[in-house]
Amino acid sequence: MVKILIADKLAQEGIDLLESIDGIKPVVKTGMSEDELCECISEYDGIIVRSATKVTARVLECADKLRGVARAGVGVDNIDIPAATNNGVLVMNTPGGNTIAAAEQTMTLMLALSRNTVPACNSLKAGAWDRKKYMGNQLYQKTLGVIGLGRIGMAVVKMSTGFDMKVLGYDPIAVPNEAKELGVQVVDDLDNIFKEADYISVHVPRNEHTTDMIAKDQFEMMKPTARVVNCARGGIINENDLYDALEAGKIAGAALDVFEQEPPENKRFQDIDNCLVTPHLGASAAEAQVQVAVEAAQILADALTGGEIKNA
Ligand code: NAD
Ligand code: MLT
């Protein structure tokens, strides 16, 4: 019997799929600490995680039978890939399953930031009727800078064409042909985006090149009307420098779906009206969760039962 541990909350459709396969036994045990995971992981051939469970080198050392880790989502930054490789454990993800959800969350945040939706709602609920204070801006014909022209970045580009935005794009690794077809002005120098854009959205993985990609120097270059959005990974926008830029009124606003530490210990952004914060909800659309769950279950089942080895 191939035993698969489902260590984070997974849509039922993924669990049902595993249960329907002869010879596979899924076991759901979520919210475990590293110690608890180390205690039980040796029983399992495979594990499915989202972002909460950290598959650390220590967990992998305890995982005598483990042959595969499937991430129901994109980022594999919660999995120690070098340690997995050393232990002969395959790491897979479901890169396309939550693309639209994350892009829609990005557009939601850009729109809500521009129209002061959250502070206006809070104010009305608190008994006020203040139409003047919450005057906003249109996205129409504004300049959007998209950093990272991969799946989510390109989905944001497509959605922004509906608002007739001018798009500047930056991706030093791969620019899809579609970017130019959609009218994206691809820039070689990232500073052009910081200097010209009204909205800046990051869609890159977090690594040594992208950590603090937007920090004090970049905020200095921005227009006072600029709004920045991070629906990718905490730390790509430096949180201390963002706080300072917002406090000093250097930029018009920011929206963070992701944080350097999750949940964030420091609650300072909650007190700034023109900073929207959401608890890592980019992929939290029901349709996306079903898709990543089913894809993760399928690729892991295939890999562990001698089928094809692939990402979704
Ligand atoms: P992707 O791999 O399709 O795209 C990433 C793009 O970034 C690639 O085109 C790559 O060439 C580019 N890139 C890499 N380094 C770069 C750099 N230094 N400068 C500019 N571009 C660079 O990934 P994706 O599916 O579009 O996901 C993007 C990010 O969003 C990831 O960090 C992912 O983990 C995150 N994400 C967050 C949520 C959420 O819930 N908030 C949901 C899904 C994905
Ligand atoms: C991802 O990388 O897929 C996202 O952060 C979403 C998630 O963690 O579910």
From TrEMBL:
Listed InterPro entries: D-2-hydroxyacid_DH, D-isomer_2_OHA_DH_cat_dom, D-isomer_DH_CS, D-isomer_DH_CS1, D-isomer_DH_NAD-bd, NAD(P)-bd_dom_sf
Enzyme Commission code: 1.1.1.95
Record keywords: Amino-acid biosynthesis, NAD, Oxidoreductase
Alphabetized Pfam families for the sequence: 2-Hacid_dh, 2-Hacid_dh_C
Gene Ontology molecular function, alphabetical: NAD binding; phosphoglycerate dehydrogenase activity
Biological process, per Gene Ontology: amino acid biosynthetic process
Family: Belongs to the D-isomer specific 2-hydroxyacid dehydrogenase family.
Record-given protein name: D-3-phosphoglycerate dehydrogenase
Species of provenance: Anaerohalosphaera lusitana
Record lineage: Bacteria, Pseudomonadati, Planctomycetota, Phycisphaerae, Sedimentisphaerales
